[in-house]
Structure formats: structure tokens, C-alpha cells
Amino acid sequence: MAIISTLIGIFAPIFLILSPFTSYTDQILSIHRTRTSAGFALDIPGIMLTASMLKIFYWPGARYDISLLVQAFLMVGVQMTLLKVALDNRPAWRGERPFTEMGKSFVETGTGRPFDFWRWKQQRPYWEYVLFLAFSLLILHTVLQPDGSSLYTKFIGALGLTIEATLPLPQLYANYRAQSCKGFRVSVLANWLFGDMMKMGYFFASEPGRVPWAFKMCGMFQAACDACLGVQYWMYGEGEAIGDDDIRLS
């Protein structure tokens, strides 16, 4: 048992650091090669960019394991690349310009989201959101200078990890509506599932206090959702999607 724990302690951090590349490179190349992001949930880069930035600014107060911090920085770069490729190659759909439907209810706008968030027709609002989030967190950190016991540190840590835990949900919903997993690379799913095993082993094999319990709880929830994605792949396969292309780009 001690040998297994030692091996996990050595190799799991390396896997965690490299996971942004191993998980998403094939998806990026597939979208670029096929010239379409239909079937890929556009919410994935949005979730990961938000969660990773929050985790980066969570580190100065929490001082969690350094490999998780390096992973967060690399994830930001990879997800920005994925977002760019997905936006450049998304199919024609009925998106709206941001803030043009402010007088209507969420149902009337057709997206079910305030201000059509992350359903924008133009690319510029996506990058404005990323920059706004980064600068807002930088200003808050500079002004508050939080430590590990501050409410702000605990809040952004819990928020970032909770957002990351929802990562599989948009893809689960997109697959369910289309009754197909076409467009979502099985390599991404395989890396998510393998990553869940490595993370759980590393989190629980690490010495007490090295990995906060918030990481462990959110990791377990995400692992359960990833398992559901595996069941969907088994049920639906990569057959033709049911419904409009804009449903597939969730």
C-alpha cells in the first residue's frame, strides 16, 4: 500500500499538470480538421476558464498543492485556444447580440439565460468576459490582500471548485437532447475518466491538509457526472443528432 501511495504521489502531479493538453488537444484538432464544433458543448471552455481563474486567485490564500496551481494556469491557455477554435468553426445558429433582449424574459429570449450569456452571436463578448473576470479578480486581490482565513478566500475557492464540478453537465444535456454523442471526442471522455481516478487517488493519498476537502468533494461529484457521460456514450454512440445544429452547440 505504501508503494502505491508513493507512485501516486510521484505520477499524479505530473498527470494533473499535463491534463489540459492530454484532455483537450484532440478535441481542438478535431474541430479544426472538420471545420465544425457541432456536438461540442461551448459551455465547457466557459466553465473551465472561469473555474481556473478563480482557482489561481484562490492559491495565495489557501496555498494548496503547487501542481494544481500550475494546472490552472495551463488550463487557461488551453481553454482559450479551444474557445477560439470552437467559435471560429461553430455552425450557423440563432444566437443574439448581447444585451439586445434586456426587456424580455429569459424564456422569450430563447436561451433561458440572462442577457443570452455565453450564447452570443459575435466573438467579442466572449473575450470581453474573460478579460473582465481576470482584471476584476486582480483588482479584488490587490485591494483585499486576502489570507487563508479570510471569507473572500474561502468564497472564491468554493465558487471556483463548484463551477468546475459542473463541467460535464452541459455536455450531458447536449447529448441527451440530441440523443447522440457525435462531435464530443471520446478521447476527452477517456481523459476525464482516467483523470478522475488519478485525482481521487492523489487527493486521498496525500498527507492531511495538502489538498483541501473542497477539492475532494467537488472531484467526487465531477467523477460521478463523467461516469454518466460514459453511460451516454454506451447508449447513444456517435449516430446522427436529433434536432437543430444550435441545440448541439450547447
Write a structural description.
- With 250 residues, the chain is mainly α.
- Helix content is 70%, strand content 0%.
- The protein contains 10 helices and no strands.
- The protein has helices at 2-34, 43-62, 66-88, 106-109, 124-144, 151-165, 168-178, 186-205, 213-236, 245-248.
- α7 runs parallel beside α9 and α8 runs antiparallel to α9.
- It is globular and about 50 Å long.
- The N and C termini lie far apart (43 Å).
- Residues 94-109 and 244-250 have low confidence and may be disordered.
Quick description:
This protein has 250 residues and is an all-alpha fold. The chain has ten helices and no strands.
Q: What is the strand and helix layout of this fold?
A:
Blueprint: H1 2-34, H2 43-62, H3 66-88, H4 106-109, H5 124-144, H6 151-165, H7 168-178, H8 186-205, H9 213-236, H10 245-248
Helix pairs in contact: 1-3, 1-8, 2-3, 2-5, 2-6, 6-9, 7-9, 8-9
List its traits.
mainly alpha
Distance between the termini: 43 Å
Which overall shape is indicated by the principal axes computed on the Cα atoms? globular
Mean pLDDT, all residues: 84
Biggest pleated-sheet summary: none
Tell me the series of helices and strands, N- to C-terminal: HHHHHHHHHH
Number of helices: 10
SS class: mainly alpha
Computed CA radius of gyration, to the nearest angstrom: 19 Å
Oligomer: single chain
Approximately how much helix is present in the residues?
Answer: over 70%
Strand content: under 5%
Low-confidence stretches: 94-109, 244-250
What is the number of strand segments?
0
